[in-house]
What we know:
Number of strands: 25
Shape: elongated
Helix content: 40-55%
Strand order of the largest sheet: 9-10-12-13-11-15-14
Amino acid sequence: MIAFRQAIEAFSLTDMHGFEWLGKRGPSLSPPTASEFNHDVVRAHAVQQIKNFLYTNFYIRGAPSHPQARPRQNSVENHQFIQKILSSDAGHNEWWDAGSVAEIRDGRVVVDSGTLKVFARPEECRSSVLPVDKGAKVQLRLGRSSLRASPGFCFLLGDADLRALDPVLRIYWNLHASAAARFVRETTSSLNAAALPFRLKVLTDPSAYDRCDSGVLYVSRTNSKEVFTEVRKIHADSGLVRSGTPAFTCRLAPGLSAADDPGNGESFGRHRCGILAESLMQAFERGLNDIDSRMRLAAEIFEGAGIDPVKPHLRAGLPELDLGPFEKQQSSRASNNGKTPSPKTNPVGTIQADWLGAAAEIGRRISAEAVWHGGRSQWIGANPLPGQGLGAVDYRTLSGGLYGGTAGIALFLAELSTRTGDSDLKRTALGAMRQALSRPGLDVGLYPGMTGIALAAARIGSLLKNDWLLDKADLLARRVLRHDVVAGQHDLIYGSAGRIVGALCLENMVKAPALKAAEKYGQALLTAAEHSSQGLSWPAQDPRGGQNLTGLSHGTAGIAYALALLWRRTEEKSFRNAAEAAIAYEQTHFNSAIANWADLRTRPEEQKPAGTRYACYWCHGAPGIALQRVWLARIFNDPTYLEHARIGMKTTAEYASRSLRHKEENYSLCHGVLGNAEVLLEWNSHTGGTDYSALALQAAAEGLRLYGTSGRWPCGTIQGDTPGLMLGRAGIGYFYLRLADPTVPSVLLVNPAAWMVERP
C-alpha cells in the first residue's frame, strides 16, 4: 500500500488538462486543443497521459522521481554493447511457440504471446495453418535472440520455451550496465543447464540502466521453486545489481523483485499504473483532496480490478508466490508496508540497518537527475540568498566546488561507486568532475574553490584509477598552490586555513610543492592575527562578523586546527603557539552555564546587537568546536582539549535529541541533524568517553523512516532542494556511506592521512 501513498502524495491533478508531480507542472493538453474534443475523449487522453507519466517517473524508478532527460545514444557504443549481450547467450533454441496472430499490419505479423506483442516478418513464422492469418497459432524463428520482440530490449529465448497456458512470473533485475553481459551468460547457462523454460530481456542502451527493470526474466509460475534455486545463485554474484526495485513488485532482495504477468498482453508496470491513473482521475472528479481519502479510493479501484492493494504484485485469482528462502526477507519488508526497512535493535541496543543501501538509493537518484552535455554532468539546486530572509533561495546550476558544487557530488558518487561497483555512479562522478574542472572559478578556498576541486580530483582519480583525472588534479594543484595569499581570507571555508589543510592533503597525492605553499599560508595567518589579552583571533571575511568569530567554519577553531596540522608536519613552534593562543581566545567566549561558545556573528539588518547567540551546528557552535578539540587533543597530546570536547559533545547530544523530538526539517551536514550525528560518531571513534552512538544511529534511522522512501530529504537551504554536499542530498548520502564504511574520509574535518590514496 505504501507504493500508492508515495505516488498519491507526489501527484496533484490541477484540472482535466494537466497535473503537478513533486510540485512541478507535468505535461498537459492545452485548453484550445482540448476544446476540440468531447469530455470523454479529453478524460481518456488525460488518464493515458497520467498512466504513461507514472510508468516513466514512478514505476521504473521504484519511487516518485523527477522527469529525466535521456542522454543522446551513442550508436557505436550501443552496437558494441548489444554484441556483447548477444555473444553471452548460452542458448540454442531457434523456434518457439509464440502465441496467436493478433493482426497483419503493413506486411508484418503481429503475434500476441500473452506476455507481449511481437512484430515479425512472415518468413519468421511457422504454423500448421496456411496462409498465416489472424487467430492462427504460430512459432517464430527468432534464432536465440531478437531486437524487435520488445523495443529497447534484447529479447533472448531459453532452450525450453514457456508453455502458452502456464501463468507467467516476471523476475525483475536492477542491473548495472557493466554487468549486463555477465548476467546474460550466467542466467542462460544456469537455466538451460537445469532444463528450465524461460525468456529473458535486457536493455540495449547502456545509458538507460538507471531504471529498476533493466533486466526481466520470464518463467513459469509452476516451477518457480526450481527457478529461484538458480536465481539465488545468480543474485549472489557481487556487483551485478543495484538496490532499487520497480514499484508494485514484490521485493525479494536488493535489486531483485517479482510480479505476476497481467495476462492481457500489457506490461505489468503499465497495467498497474493504468489502474492508479484511473483512481487519481476519479479522486479529482469526486473532489477528494486529502491523502487518506485518495488512498481509500485507490484501494477500492485496485480491488475492483481483482488486484489486492496490499499485494499488487499478484495476479487476480493466483495465490501468494512460493519463494523459498526469499520469503523470510520479503515478509519482514511486507510487514513494514514496503517502506524503507525499519532498523532493528539488537539485544545491546545497537541500531542496525542497510546504511550502504540507503546511500546507494540517494546516489542513484542524484545520478539520475544529472543533466549531461559534452561528457559533463551538471545539476540545478536551491541557492540561499543572503540578506533576504530565512529560507530565501533561487535555483541555478551548481558551481564547481566541494561545498555546494559538482566536485562535492562527484566525491560522494565516486566513494559510493567503489563500494557498490555501480558503473553508472562512476560515470556520473567523472562527468561531475569534468564539469568542476571545466569551470573552477576564481575562488581558491578549500570548500567552495579550486583547492577543494583539486583535492577531489586527486582522490577520485586515485580511487577510480583514472590517469586523465590525476593529470588534471596535478595541473590544478600547481595552479592553486602558486596562487598568492588572498588578503582578508583566513578561515577554514574560504581562507588560508582551508588552503593549509588542502595543501597538506595534496602533498602526497599530486606532484606539486604543496608543503611550501602550506607554510606560506601559515605565515600569512601569523602576520594577520590580531593579538589581545584574550589570545589570537582573526577578522572575519563574513560581513556579519562584528567581533572576531569563534567556531569551526569561519572562526578561530578552524584556523587553530589548520595551524596544529602545520605544526605537526613542520614542528615549527610558532604554528603551535598560534593555535593554542587562538583556542585561548575562543575559550573566553565559552559560557559554562550554557555549555557552549558564543556565536559572534551579527546580521546586517540588525540596527543594534541582539543578545548573545549560541548556535549548535558543525559550522558554528559546540559541535564543530568539540570536533576540532578531539583532534587537537590527539595532535598536541593534551587532555585539556579533550575536556573541552566532552562538554561540547554533551551539548551537541542534547541539541540532537531536541532536534529529533521536534522533527527538525534539516538533515544537512553543515547545520542539520546528520552533521551533528556525525560529530557524535567521531567522538565515539576517537575516545572512550560517553557513548553517543545510539543517539547518532537513532537520527540516521529516523531520517530513513521519514524520508528514505520518498527521497525528498529536507536540505540546509531550508526552502528548496539541492543535491550538493554540505547543504544537500550528496552530504546526506555521504553520511550514510560513512556509517557503512568509516574509512570513507570525513568532510567535516579534513584529515590529510584519511584522504590520501596511493596513486595507481
